[in-house]
Every structure is written in structure tokens, then in C-alpha cells.
């Protein structure tokens, strides 16, 4: 038995310290951690842009993080659908989701099936968006 199973979804594009912090903190709060790497198609649908690093490479990076017990590619738009395929007891999101429409919907959906939502501190000074902007300016 795996004990408490946690799920930490993310695009994990341009992997950085914020991603590592989320995975580290998530693993501290569960016995088995599944990282959901959002596919290129789902990332484009959700964020309006394709990740810089392709899904297969992001998956390989995340699979090799010591805090991650299992990494999967997330290919469905609703986290609840992922839960049906890969059951977990707690889902982890950055605290930038707390109090937002997305966070409220996540809490509502998972409360119905007994899954806890845990918000972890968002690393404000580093993000894939900031890295992408820096790369764009450097190339200009």
C-alpha cells in the first residue's frame, strides 16, 4: 500500500527552483507523489501558448526528480478526470490559485470525492513566464 497519495500537476516548462520547491513541499505532505506533466496540447489550451520544452522532455526531467515517485502526462482538461485514472488523496497547487475561480472550482470538484486541496507557497521571483520573457528580450 502506498499510504497517502499526492498529486502535483504542472506544465513544468523551463524547469526552475519554483517547480522544485512545489515538488519538495508536496512530497513532505504525502507518502507517494505523482507529478502530472501537462501535455503540450493541454498547456496551449489552458495558457494560450505551447511550452518551450516539449512534453516528452518535460516528463523525463520530472521523472528524475528525487521527490517524485511517479510522473504521468496529463492529457485531459479536468483534474477530476485525471483523478479517475490515477487516484490520489490530496492535490497540490501553488498558492497563487487560492481564492481564484480556478481554485474555487478545484476545491468544489474535489470536495465531492473526498480529495483535499493543499496550496503550497508560490515562488514569486521565478516563473516560466519570467524566464520566457527574459529569453524573448535576449533574442531581440
- Radius of gyration equals 15 Å
Content-based structural category: alpha/beta
Please report the total strand number as a whole number.
5
What percent of residues are in strands? 15-25%
* End-to-end CA span: 53 Å
List unreliable stretches of 5+ residues. Answer: none
Largest sheet: 5 strands, parallel
Give the count of helical stretches.
6
Strand neighbour order, sheet with most strands: 3-2-1-4-5
Shape: globular
The helix fraction, in percent, is 40-55%
Which H/E pattern describes the elements? Answer: EHEHHEHEHEH
Q: Name the average pLDDT.
A: 91
Ordered list of secondary-structure elements with their pairings:
Blueprint: E1 5-10, H1 17-27, E2 32-38, H2 40-47, H3 55-63, E3 70-74, H4 79-85, E4 90-94, H5 101-111, E5 116-120, H6 128-139
Amino acid at each position: 500500500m502506498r499510504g497517502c497519495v499526492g498529486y502535483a500537476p504542472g506544465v513544468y516548462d523551463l524547469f526552475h527552483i519554483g517547480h522544485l520547491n512545489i515538488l519538495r513541499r508536496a512530497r513532505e505532505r504525502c507518502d507517494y507523489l505523482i507529478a502530472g506533466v501537462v501535455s503540450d496540447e493541454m498547456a496551449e489550451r489552458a495558457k494560450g501558448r505551447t511550452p518551450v520544452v516539449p512534453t516528452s522532455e518535460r516528463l523525463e526531467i520530472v521523472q528524475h526528480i528525487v521527490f517524485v515517485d511517479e510522473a504521468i502526462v496529463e492529457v485531459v482538461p479536468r483534474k477530476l478526470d485525471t483523478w479517475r485514472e490515477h487516484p490520489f488523496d490530496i492535490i497540490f497547487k501553488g498558492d497563487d490559485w487560492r481564492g481564484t475561480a480556478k481554485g474555487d472550482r478545484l476545491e468544489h470538484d474535489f470536495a465531492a470525492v473526498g480529495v483535499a486541496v493543499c496550496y503550497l507557497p508560490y515562488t514569486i521571483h521565478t516563473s516560466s513566464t519570467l524566464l520566457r520573457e527574459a529569453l524573448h528580450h535576449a533574442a531581440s
